[in-house]
């Protein structure tokens, strides 16, 4: 399956309470092949944190916060998927996403407004047990792309060199550092 352009829409972010988990939604979106994350609540701190990771670790990834989520879903021209424990089985929906060029993936925080379920093309359960938006997003993106996202080159200032034991980083323009103990 060719990989679509993937946007992730994070609903219901409360800057004081959800700082850590929303950061993880954004970083998971980036690391697992999405090209942008849209967050329904304005949060310059979240933008700074994510942009700082992009600056250091590379890749083309954008974050926008304070987006009008209803309009974003309604105006979206591609295919939209809402991840929810109440949705259809992932295995039943994945074949229907073959050949999709633009994909919007919606994840919630607390209760998701009822009209989200009506306005998206698919409501998809990653299993039908309650768990987490981070887990749901990671599993969905991995299954969608068959694991190829983990081979993506980010070409950042910093690259981690896979190491059996210790920590080895490559800085752009510098020699590889020797493995350091963790
Ligand atoms: N009962 C809540 C609800 O209204 O959906 C669960 C909220 S859960 C803490 C936060 C988000 O995680 C959900 O909005 C959904 O996007 C995602 N999520 C949790 N479990 C899921 C599952 N089994 N499949 C897909 N997404 C899930």
Sum up the structure in keywords.
182 residues; alpha/beta; Alpha/beta knot; two-stranded antiparallel sheet; 8 strands; globular; binds S-adenosylmethionine
Concise summary:
With 182 residues, the chain is α/β, with parallel strands linked by helices.
General description of the model:
It is a single chain. This protein is α/β, with parallel strands linked by helices. It folds into two domains: 5-150, Alpha/beta knot (3-Layer(aba) Sandwich), CATH 3.40.1280.10; 152-182, no CATH class. The protein has helices spanning 15-31, 44-57, 69-75, 90-93, 114-119, 133-145, and strands at residues 5-10, 36-39, 62-65, 79-89, 102-107, 122-125, 158-160, 169-171. The strands form two sheets. A six-stranded parallel sheet has the order 3-2-1-5-4-6. It has a two-stranded antiparallel sheet with strand order 7-8. α2 links the parallel β2 and β3. The site of S-adenosylmethionine has 18 residues, from β4 and α6. Residues 83-85, 107-109, 111-112, 125-133, 136 line the site of S-adenosylmethionine.
Ligand inventory: S-adenosylmethionine
> What structural class results from the helix and strand content?
alpha/beta
CATH architectural designation of the largest domain: 3-Layer(aba) Sandwich
Count of discrete domains: 2
Chain-wise SSE layout:
Blueprint: E1 5-10, H1 15-31, E2 36-39, H2 44-57, E3 62-65, H3 69-75, E4 79-89, H4 90-93, E5 102-107, H5 114-119, E6 122-125, H6 133-145, E7 158-160, E8 169-171
Parallel strand pairs: 1-2, 1-5, 2-3, 4-5, 4-6
Antiparallel strand pairs: 7-8
The chain binds S-adenosylmethionine (SAM).
């Amino acid at each position: 399956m060719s990989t679509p352009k993937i946007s992730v829409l994070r609903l219901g972010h409360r800057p004081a309470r959800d700082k850590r988990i929303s950061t993880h939604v954004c970083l998971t979106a980036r690391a697992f092949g999405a090209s942008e994350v849209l967050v329904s609540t304005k949060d310059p701190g979240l933008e700074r944190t994510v942009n700082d990771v992009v600056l250091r670790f590379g890749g083309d990834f954008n974050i926008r916060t304070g987006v009008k989520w209803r309009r974003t879903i309604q105006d979206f021209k591609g295919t939209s998927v809402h991840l929810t424990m109440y949705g259809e089985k992932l295995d039943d929906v994945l074949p229907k996403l073959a050949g999709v060029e633009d994909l919007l993936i919606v994840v919630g925080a607390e209760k998701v407004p009822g009209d989200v379920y009506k306005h998206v093309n698919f409501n998809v359960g990653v299993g039908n047990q309650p768990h987490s938006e981070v887990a749901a997003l990671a599993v969905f993106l991995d299954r969608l792309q068959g694991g190829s996202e983990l081979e993506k080159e980010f070409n950042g200032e910093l690259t981690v060199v896979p190491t059996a034991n210790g920590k080895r980083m490559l800085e752009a323009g510098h020699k590889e550092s020797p493995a350091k103990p963790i």
